[in-house]
Amino acid sequence: MIAYRQRGFIHFYQIFIGITALALLLAYETVLPWIPRIDLSKNVNLMPYGLAVIVGILIGGRSFRLYRHRLHALHGSEAWSLGFQQAAYVGACVFALMFAIKDREVSRLFLGTYLLLLGFLLSALHQRLPALIARLLFAENRARTLFVGNQTTPDRLLPWVQEREHLGIIPVGYLADVSGEGVVLPEVPRLGGMADLKAILRDRRINQVILLEWLHDPAEMELIVEICESEGCRLLVHNDFGSKFARNLTVVEQGGEQFFTLQEEPLEDPVNRAIKRLLDLVVALPVVVLLLPPLTLLVWAVQRCQAPGPVFFTMPRGGQNRREFPMIKFRSMHVQNPDVAKQATVGDSRIYPFGRFLRRSSLDEIPQFINVLLGHMSVVGPRPHLPQHDEEFSKIDHTYRVRSLVKPGVTGLAQVKGYRGEITDPEKLRKRVHWDLYYVTNWTFWMDVRIILSSFGVVVRPPKTAY
Q1: Per-residue model confidence as pLDDT tens digits over 341-399
Q2: Distance CA 188, CA 200 (A)
Q3: Distance CA 161, CA 167 (A)
Q4: End-to-end CA distance of the chain
C-alpha cells in the first residue's frame, strides 16, 4: 500500500511537471511578441517541440529516483539540482529533434531562454509543490495506523513514520504486552496489550496495522492475520532481520522467490552498465587521442634529464571481481626502486622532481584511460590498489572487498571527497571505503558526471594528501 502510494505520488507529480513544462512553452510563445530581440518565425510549428519536451520530462523522471523517498522535503540545493537536471534532459531532446528534422527556422535563442526559464521554474516548484500535492492526494484517504508488538526499541521506525506523513500515514497508538513509554513515537500512546487488538481496530477505526517484529509462534501470527482480515485492515510486517544481522538488508524478488541482500547494485542493470560504458568511451577516447600523445612526449623529454628509463610504469592492480589487471601510469619514480610496493610518502626520495608534479596534479594517471578503453577500468570507480595492499586493507576493514563488485576508476567519489594518497591509519581507510561503497550502492549517471567535473577541481587544487 505504502509503495503504491509513493509510486503514484511520484507519477502524478511527474505528469504535473510535464504539463507545466508544456504550458510554459506555449505561454512563452504567446508573450514572445512583447520580448525584444527574440523573434520566432511564423512558419515554426512548435507541436513537435512540445512532444520533445514531454519526452524529455519522462526521460528525466530517472532523476526522481535519487529523491523518491523525500521528494516532498527537498533542500534548496537538491531542488535546484533536480530542476536543472530535468531541464537538461528536455534540452537534449529538443535540440536532438531540431538537428534531426534540420529545422533552420526555429530560434535557438528562443529555445535556450525557454530551457533556462524551465530550469528556474522547476527548481522553484520542487521546493514547495510536492508536499502540497501529496496532502491533496491523500487528504481523504488517511491510513490510521496501529503499531503492534513487544519490541521496545524500534528506533529506525521513528524517522520512517515522520517521513511518510505526507502519504497520509497517521500513527494512532501501539499495543504491547510490555509497558513502556515511547515504544514507537513519544507522542503515540499505548492503547493496551496484544489481546486488545480486535477491539482497538474496531473502536479506533484503524485501517492499517504494522507488526513490529516477526512472531515465531505460527498460531499467534495466524490469529493477528485473521483479526486484521476480519476487520478489513491491511497488515504490514516490519522486517527486523537487519537488526539481527547488524546490517541494512534489501529485499529482492526473482522468479517468485524473495531473498535478502546486503546492498543495492544499480550497475548490475545491463542498461546502466551500457550507459556507464558509453560515458567511459566518450571521455577516454579524446583523452587518449588528443591529450596522451603530447603529454607522453613531454614526460619522455623531462625523464631523459631527471630520471632516464621507461616512460610508462605498469604494475598489477586489483580489478572487478578481484581479477588482477596491468594498470598503466607515467613513471614518477627513479628506475632504481628497491620497494615498488611501498606507498609513496611525504618527501619520498624515490620520486624525481617532475614526477612529484605529475603525482600531485594526477597527470601520472592519464595513461589509465588506455585501461578504460581496454575495459579494465572505468573513468569513475573505486581506485585500484596493489594486490598485497588489497590483502592488507581487507584485514583492517572487512567490507573493503565489496569495492570489487564494480570496475575500478581513474577517479572516484572518495578521491573528490579528499581521501587520496597514502593511507596512514585505519580511520582514513575506513572513510575511503565508506565513500567507495556509497558509490557502489548508489551509482547514477549524474553521480559519475559530477565526480568527473569535480575531479578537474582536484587536479587544479590538489589536496594536501596528494604527493
Answers
A1: 566 666 677 888 888 888 888 888 999 999 999 999 999 999 998 888 888 888 888 88
A2: 14
A3: 10
A4: 54
C-alpha distance from residue 143 to each of 5, 7, 161, 435 (Å): 11, 16, 12, 37
The pLDDT of residue 295: 93
pLDDT digits (tens, 9 = 90+) for 56-103: 988 887 777 677 677 777 888 888 988 898 999 999 999 898 888 887
Whether the CB-CB separation of 178 and 192 falls below 8 Å is answered with no
Alpha carbon 259 to its chain centroid, in Å, reads 23
Going from the C-alpha of 230 to that of each of 141, 170, 221, the distances in angstroms are 20, 21, 14
Distance CA 136, CA 296 (A): 62
- Nine-digit cell string for 244: 539481527
CA-based radius of gyration for the chain: 28
CB under 8 A, 24+ apart: contacts of 332-341: 332/356, 332/358, 332/359, 332/364, 333/307, 334/307, 334/309, 335/307, 335/308, 335/309, 335/310, 340/315, 341/386, 341/388, 341/389
